[in-house]
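Researcher: I'm preparing a figure for a lab meeting and need a structural model of a single chain. I don't have an experimental structure, so a prediction will have to do for now. The sequence is pasted below. Please return the structure as C-alpha cells so I can convert it later.
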Amino acid sequence: MKIRTAGPADADEIVQVRIASWRAAYRGIVDDKVLDGLREEPSESFVMNLSSPPPFWTTLVAERGPDVIGSITVGWDTRESGHDEVEPGQPGEVWMLYVHPERWGGGAGYALMREGHKALDGLGLSPIRVWVLDGNTIGKRFYERYGFVADGERAEHEIGKRAYPIVRYTLPKDRLVDELV
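Model: Understood. Here is the structure written out cell by cell.
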C-alpha cells in the first residue's frame, strides 16, 4: 500500500470511495434516500482544491496497486477560525477519512490517519479534532483505537436537510505520531 498526496486525477476515485463508505457506515443512521442519492461526481471546487490546495489543507490517498482505496483530508479546525485567520498553534481537524468498505480492517485507515497526523504536526496544528456522527460506531471505534477521546463537545450537522447529532473527538497533544507503530 502506498500513501501519497492526492491530485485532481484522483477526484473521481476519492468520491467513489466516500460514497461506498457512507453507504456502508451510515445505513440506518442517515436517511436511505440521502445515501442512495449521493452525488457521484466530484464538485468543481473539490477538484480545484486538489489541483491547488489552500494553505493548511492536505489531501492524501491510499493506493493498492492502481486503485485508490481510501483518502484523508486534514486542515484547520473550521469551527475555531476561517481560512484567512489560521496559523500554526491552532487546532487541526480531520475533515474526512474514508476507506472503501471492502478494505476495512486492512490498515489503510490507520496509515492514512498516521500520515494525516504527520501533516497536521508539520503545519503546526494541534490538538487534532474530528467530528463523528453520533450513531457511527465504526468511526468512533476507529478514532478511539488511534487515541482520540470524546471531549464532551456536541453539535449538529445537516445532511439532506436534516440535522444529525455529531460528537467531537480530540487527540491529546501528548499523543505523538512517532509513538505509533
